[in-house]
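ARCHIVE CARD
SHELF: 3
SLOT: left
DATA:
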Amino acid sequence: ILNSLGSVYILLGEHQKGIELIRQSLEIARSIRDGVGEARALRNLGQAYQNSGAYPQALEAFQQSLQKYQTFGGLPESTRALQWLAVTQASLGDQPKAMAILRQALEQQRKIGDRQNEAWILVMLGQYLGESGERGEARARIEEAITLNETLRSQVVSQELRTSFQPLFVNPYQRYIDILMLSEKATPGVGLAAQAFQTSERARARNLLELLVESRADIRAGIDPKLLATERELQQRRQAKAAIQIALLAGKHTPQQAAEMAQEINEINAQLNDVEAMIRRTSPRYAALTQPIPLTATEIQQRVLDDDTLLLEYSLDQKRSYLWAVTTKEIHSFTLPAANEIEAAARRWLDLLPKSTQRRYERETELAAAGLSRLILAPAAAHLQKKRLVIVADGLLQYVPFAALPKPVVGENAKADQPPATSHTPLIKEHELVSLPSASALALLRNEIKGRPTATKQLAVFSDPVFQSNDPRVQLAKTNRPTHAAPTESAKELLAQTLTRAAADAGITSFVRLPFARQEAEAIAKLTPKDQQLKALDFAASRQTARTRQLEQYRYIHFATHGLLNSQHPELSGLVLSLVDEDGKTQDGFLRLSDLYNLKLNADLVVLSACQTALGKDVHGEGLVGLTRGFMYAGAARVVASLWNVNDAATAELMQKFYRAMMVEKLTPAAALRSAQLAMLRDPRWASPYYWSGFMLQGEWK
């Protein structure tokens, strides 16, 4: 227990506390002559020293641990001790010795047959070979690791587990990119930068490609009816529990009650994941699906991009990061600072954006934006001459509103003896911006769009749901009076300054009615004929309505309500619709990510005019797993979603301008969003980027 507790403190960064506890464990192991326990404690002690930078002490601990494991333990334990010993030797600057130890560990590991650990050794060996200048063998070793990793991953049938599947400790794709880019620097012009870009796509695109392929395949055909019945029963249990959870969180409750309910739902969800994995494993159709292959660099240039588009793809890593600027004819690559420096600059700006509406924070916010622009845009400034920028971001950059970043200065205006300058011109003024999870995913999405039916009607809008039984609309419904009561002007004025479309993370106490959501819906609906629209307001803005087949008929689907994201369990994220019926009785109004996977849409556009709907669990190498991905899975060609808790009044204004630009001016959704954001920027009331830059378009720009 002491040993394990010490390891936890190490993971928390409290190294001294961890070392003290592990030393106590070590003393007990020695006193009772527990050789394996002593070896384990020494290994953990070495890891503690390694993580805290005390490399000589780490080396001594690992050497002693190895000796003990060789005497008392088995081959797997001694192999892992060798691996850690190699890491410490490399940290001390002795790469040759580290590589010799890893070669020994690799030989032992292949006798054991632990293929995931073998991949770890191959990656580390490749990294040290690359750092020593032996980049040919380095690439070969890491290619072996990637092949092993993808073989292992393909054997995981659970989508949730496959999404989160990662190699142990290190990412082979990141190491491979780094080796390729270092090799490109040493021998430029032989195509290694393009190969590195292709590796970035290979890493980030895999899971979403699989989801998109599966979305149009009836994988439940031919499955044992008992298994399908179990799936339905678990889905019903989860929905019932989730409805109880929403009711609990919306009223008075203790943290223990909330935690117990969450645990019950997690247990049902785990059972459901197992059943769905069994369905995939035994499905004749699923077995016939080939693993989709990400596009090559040339295919992306030819099949995804056009002459008016520049693709900016980022890969962030601990030592150095990379940016590729890709056109139909060229691929330019740039080395950027380490991920922690870039993400610290991004976090600084993101933290200031909500304050930028106050004059005293304006200058500080502008400086933070300029600093981030210099880090991530300035190297490619000479290539930003296209009207459209397609961003494939990584890490925290996935949360950054690129539209509001100032354009870096190039040419005669840039001073050679100073850091790259920035203008005061946000990118949105000169560029249309689109976000993608990967370029390869867009190519597959385009293929899916070609094969689907055409939507026959214009607009379905869900807005102003009823969240609480004491809502005045409940009493109005009971007395058969119209249910179109809107908030008073004084209520609007009171809430406009404080209301955002979010509950307070997971600690929700209640869902507040959004005073401008109805105004937003009514204004949008006026742009389409009544026989071409579904206007689901009040009680009609329900989960039941959203799950009906009639949504297949609409080109544009709009949700103006609260959105919730569960970062630990993305499948429990969703949109909050009516939580009570016309009698004031509680109902399940939470449209979950799992519901989206069961929809079949033919929508050109889904708009999530809610809080933080673009965010999700950041799975390294796979992009964000969230509602945006869910709607793409369901068949949406593109999704407009928010990056943060958006202001209610500003969003209503932005959305009216956005839809008018699409429906009246006949602009593409990407061009219409830019037009609306520029109009907001010109309005003194909404000029702060906090009000207009939080929405981004993901998916097809054509």
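SLOT: right
DATA:
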Amino acid sequence: MKIDRRSFLAFVIGGAAGTALSPLPYKLTDDLSIWSQNWPWTPVPPDGEVSYVDSTCTLCPGGCGISVRKVDQRAVKIEGMKGHPVNDGGICLLGLSGLQLLYGPTRVQQPLQRTGRRGEGRWRAISWPEAISKVAANMREIRAADKPHAVGCILTSDRGTVPFLFDRFLTAYGSPNLMRTPSFLDSYELVLHVMQGVQAMAGFDLENATFVLSFGSGLIDGWSSPVRLFRANSAWRRNHAKIIQVEPRLSNTAAKADQWIAIRPGTEAALALGMAHVIIRESLYNNEFVENSAFGFSGWTDKEGQSHTGFKELVLGEYGPDKVSRITGVKSDEIVSLARGFARASRPLALTGRGRGLTPGSTGEYMAVHALNALVGNINRPGGIWTLPEPDYTSWPELEMDAVAAHGVQRGSIDGAGSKQFPFTRSLLNRLPEVLNAGKGNGLQMLMIHGANPCYTLPDSKAVVEAFGRIPFVVSFSSYMDETARNADLILPNHTYLERYEDVPAPAGLSKPFIGLTRPVVPPQFNTRHVGDVVLQLAKTLGGSVGRSLPWGSYEDCLKETLRDKWRTLEDKGFWHQPDFKPPAGAAAFETASQKFEFFATAIHAEKRKDPDALPHFKPVEPEGDSSAYPLILIPYDSMRLAAGVIGTPPFMIKTVEDTVLKGVHVLVEVNPETAKKLGLAEGKTAVLETPKGRITVKIHLFDGIMPDVIAMPRGLGHSAYDKYLAGKGVNFNEMIGPVQDPISGLDAAWGIHARLQKA
């Protein structure tokens, strides 16, 4: 049997991916056991009664159920919860490492006040009453100056009772500045709004899809809910579903797919529209859906007599396979074959959101990919993309606002979300550093951060630190000494997820309504406090309408009252869900002006934008930098062996990182051998990588699985905080790239950056 080089690479890397996704090899477990005995903080449980506590993991957006084994009051092992609708007994490396985060040295053990310069790491311990008093005093002073809008808050999510408490607290105080960390779900939220007219979350019925077309989504590299996707991948193999991965680099997902389509980075929207061209030209689309449930497929004339181009005319006129091939680097016959296979599948699903989906993207790209689902009529149907209603289980007393609060919230969010310029977007945290550093708006006098580490996770992280340095008072609620906590003035540490009650609604991408519950597996190990209780205490200390708007005596009281009839189920099972949920079908699925799915988004057109912006189209997102000075393109990649979000990679996971990713303290950059030869670079050699954002020293890893003139670097390294097992290893990719603003959403649409590489 003959196999070409691409197939050989997929075979080799796919085997490695299979090992990474399988239960931990005994040798690795043994190595870890020996290695971990050298840690001075390794817990040694006493003999005693063994028990299990079911809970929910919150270390990533996946929302997996976990079962924690205890000996007396000591947690000794975390396993996946059997029968859980998300992971059904499975667990990933990060979830398995949770005990290191519970008992490890990176915990903030008590309230701390900064004594040195920001980032210097000099602190003094203070009491909880003193800490809360300091925050309240600052907030009183800001409010007395009639500037409640100068207070902001950054959360990892704006869903669930804790985010709802922050939102209610800020609104009663008078601030509109509740911001959340961005992800691919932001872009999907916007696209569902403008093309379907719904305020909903995107769910993907991946388990029942027979043809999955992924535009760069790392389905087994941590995208959405990782363990759920591992299980789905196994089901696809059993059911002979076809998986196609489109991306410029051979990831683990691409290696395990049925077909890897190498594409020039940033041209994914063009490929989607080229496929649409073939599907329409050959009449392979779902005629019933297009005729009865879609608007803007064909051109039309509005009431004012203005003619508008339809989606059909657009793609047939501008996105023929030959033209798209020149744009994307994908062969014309491959585009045609891909389109036919997708359209003829019984339950095809197209999706996007690069890597783990930690960043949003171009609105045009998301609209183009979503248009493919509409062409085959697989919206809110088995194996397709579903709309999930926003969590609506909070039915709290009416909010009380005084004149100061009413005036403050009318000022609009400092990041521009919801403004006339960006009316469709709920949060634009990526814009905050530029706004602050440019001195635009009214600035912020105080910033609170909970469940987020923007000084590490946002692009152009140096600019983020600089922006935070302009805020007089920064409060972190982090359980760990991460980069953002190190740059705060006050740290009020939250309990970890193994020490607290909290609801966990709607894991990323799940296709059924779901609420998980974290519960105290062990008592708080240090002098920490539940962030919900801190918010309630702050409200009580401020008093007035703010205090009356948050009347609960404790967070646990608030949680039980909020969940009401669901509480008993959550206590008994550890989760609540609707396995028989069916999304709205037919006309009920669409709440647009036309009451149909809109290929031509009238919501965008109504904002007086040019007509092309209302149609899915390919408008290249240009990476930062001059191609003559920086001839290469640097892109990031994600790995299940590195945590790249809020949580730093625990020592357990660092042990599993390959030496082709991290060698000692040096990060390796993947380079195609053809590119390396041209630059005079060789395997393992030291080189200097430079982008418009910075200059670093790296090592070279030759990799046939990346396109020529494209180079790749992992996310999740380069921490300046945490412990000696993580800090100082590699480089944070976000130091090397800056945001590129999408003109429609305002979200970050950057997928890479121009770079150059030369011998050290």
